[in-house]
TrEMBL record:
Residues 690-700 have a biased composition (Acidic residues). Transmembrane segments: none annotated. This is Alpha-galactosidase. One of its GO terms (biological process) is carbohydrate catabolic process.
Amino acid sequence: MLPTATSSYVVSLTPDARALRFDQWGPATSEPTAPAPLPERVPFSTPLDVAPLEYATSGTRHAQQVELVVDHGDGRRGAAWRVERPDGPASYDVSGGTTTLQVPFTDDSGGLRLTLTLRADTSHDVVEKSVVVENRSEHTVTLPRVFSGAWPVPVGAPAHVEYLTGAWGHEFTPASVDLPAGTFSIGSRQGVTGHVFAPTVTVSAAGGGSGGGTGDAYGVALAWPGSWCLAVEAPPYGEHVRVSCGVDDEDTVVTLLPGESFTTPPTLGTWSPHGAAGVTRNWHAYQRRVLARSLGPEHHPVVYNSWYATTFDVRPEHQLQLADVAAEIGAEVFVVDDGWFAGRHSDAAGLGDWTPDPDVFPDGLDPLVDGVRERGMRFGLWVEPECVNPDSDLYRAHPDWVYRVDGREPTTVRNQLVLDFGREEVVAWAEDTLRGLLTRYPVSYLKWDMNRPVSDGGRPGDVHGGQWPVQHAAGYLRVMRMLRREFPHVTVEACASGGGRVDDAVLAVADVVWPSDETGPRDRLRIQDGFLRAYPAHVMSSWVTDEPGLRDRTPVSFGYRFVVAMAGALGIGSDLLRWDAGSRAQARWLVQLYRELRPMLHGGDVVAHGVPHEPGYALEYGDGARVVILVYDTLRERRTPVRVRPRLVRDDVRYRLRGSDVTITGASARAAGIEVPWAVAPDADVLVLDPDDPDPDDPDDPRPDAPNRRSPAP
Ligand code: DGJ
């Protein structure tokens, strides 16, 4: 049994000791109920075929989805396992709140070993699973599919599957499907997580109303920044819907020479009795407690990024003019995006040559870096270490460093090719290049971008060449981990042409992620609503820009743009030299408000009220004591009063709406709602509910006479 904070995950060996089976997943218990016996006979099938197995392999399973396909290379496929110690698992380790179960199996041929690892911790509600496959035979074995695990979730069919889909500029769009039978699968073969699907689903019983916050719901995710696959299979037998996931099984073939092994990335699962919203809360708690190295402002600063203001026209004197205003309005880091390095005057050249452009920076970056620091901000830089322009010194020196399939012209996307991160010398070059930059200049914020998918993978002549999608992701993670280990003061923002690489593996190595290149405020609100279903607010980089929006250009106020960006890690990307004095003053006030609320916005639960673009859509943040509600309403010309009914308040606590005389108990606020005063902007507001009995000994406890919340006129 694996206990989490509020649940228990229970597995047992099948009576024939040939597999591990799923028994139970639900409220915490110390006495699991005995699993239903497996049928002795199944018409036109075998008992193992219908069992809710933790991990299934080709060769012993024919009717349902399998997680492992083995090819012995001599006409034999599959494997039949037997547990190595039938009298008990090889390892059941409880240390502190963590329980780790490891169960090794050997193939009947004796040549393969499979170890299943399951881990849970009582500080959160997420169960982690992974597997190791070892080749102990004398021959080479290939694994056309080697998934991380399966989650047999007991919801019956039809299953209601919620997921996030989209494309560049409209990532993280919520969608759902009811699955009566068969398989629904999502994934990426782009060498990165991709814009099209997020590697996570929430599964519940169709018609169970899980979206409304009630009913059992199960979340499954894959923590992997490369090509992947996630499949949900509605059962022909019994109540278990099978969710399997792992590295992509179409373009990836793992090859194990004698003595080699392969460890899968982890798959994560969580159960909630509070529907899809409960699954979201469980993910966020895990991402804050386990994946984040810190929740504080040191790695979640207010960023000014000059990309939208200058694109490739990066000139030090112009950047310093922008830095003057960025400092004035309260930015904590000034980031120079694409365009600062040798030969980079458009996206056609320079990528790979990571030295300041000598024509633009004859004295190197020092004058700009010093100027930014003198203005009281940290200095940040953009890099794209995985790619190269053919028109670059790096490519001219190492044309063999890019992915290339013999006999096929490599595909350029945005005029660039992808460096082969499956080669040791290439990954070592990336590490050394970044080490050099971060040692030479006092850069303390790095934005790592990736502006194209990986294609033309494979390495002719390399027996492991078919493993390039795994190698590429592993190389990326290796360099990201080096940054964290050797430069712990450097905040890392992960980006891939917007939200092309966002997943729980990235959240473990980056401090913030860039969810989309779409910064038009109403479109962004939709993207953020979807993003927050799977990922937390403290990683959600969001900038105020001057962009109108790619799809929805309905005008909004200046304040609305800020309240959208405050929903995550606030940044600013506007051309600040076009802002008048009134806008700068209002921006300074809004940045100050955000900085004050940041611990609450980043440290607690988030719940959404309604849907974006319906009047009164709101995001509510609660850290257990206080509540912040961001409300959006572009249809305010109707002048109808809008009330929000907070859900994260405590019924018996009396709250004061900050900056007003309004006091209300949590129970009344929940029932009757609070009328939105629209104090911050005509179409957006920030409501702060403080407990009305502040502790006089706590200097951080806000006084009821806290300054008025009304925004200054622009
Ligand atoms: C794509 C990113 O998403 C943008 O923010 C910007 O950094 C550009 N790349 C620069 O090329």
